[in-house]
Design goal:
Elements (H helix, E strand, L loop, with lengths): L7 H20 L4 E3 L9 H7 L6 E5 L3 E9 L8 E5 H14 L3 E6 L7 E6 H4 L7 E3 L6 E6 L4 E4 L5 H7 L2
Parallel strand pairs: 3-5
Antiparallel strand pairs: 1-2, 2-3, 4-8, 5-6, 6-9, 7-8
Length: 170
């Protein structure tokens, strides 16, 4: 299970981000499965692989397959122009990604962006060593990667998922 406790406010913000992401997917007619975070919906073996935490969505991409998406409501640390991503969660997702050969991406937005801009990054890119330093939060005492905003692919509310792929190959 999770190594840290999420506050009620944090849970509400996360739920809001998921709902807004769902609206964006529906607006662009992108097929998806929402993955409930409930332990009875998955086999014990899969639950163990994900260590109790699963991505929020399976986004289906015609002629390609699918990607798993973990939606986050995170604020940009303006001083450093970075978004924080939990290191233990990222390492677990990276392990699952390698073991089952499937793509897992983080997607970040918040109220400050009015959920009109989504920041996408594959877990594997977060894991690239040497580029992204690891820090400890003074509040939660959890380690996190401070990921520079320029490492993300920005997708506006008016953009389609095609932008993700075109920017991935630049």
């Amino acid at each position: 299970m999770e190594d840290f406790h999420i506050t009620e406010e944090g849970r509400k913000k996360g739920d809001e981000a998921q709902q807004m992401f769902m609206l964006w997917l529906n607006k662009h007619n992108i097929p998806y499965f929402f993955i409930e975070q409930n332990e009875t919906d998955f086999s014990k073996a899969l639950l163990n692989s994900f260590h109790g935490k699963r991505p929020d969505f399976m986004v289906l991409i015609p002629n390609f397959g699918f990607i798993f998406v973990e939606v986050k409501n995170r604020n940009l640390y303006k001083t450093y122009n970075t978004f924080p991503l939990d290191t233990s969660e990222t390492k677990r997702y990276s392990s699952v990604q390698r073991r089952f050969n499937m793509q897992i991406w983080y997607v970040i937005s918040n109220q400050e962006y009015a959920y009109k801009t989504w920041f996408w990054i594959p877990v594997s890119k977060v894991m690239e060593s040497g580029k992204i330093p690891k820090y400890e939060s003074s509040k939660s005492k959890q380690d996190f990667y401070a990921v520079p905003a320029e490492e993300f692919i920005q997708i506006a509310d008016s953009d389609s998922l095609g932008r993700l792929f075109s920017k991935s190959f630049e």
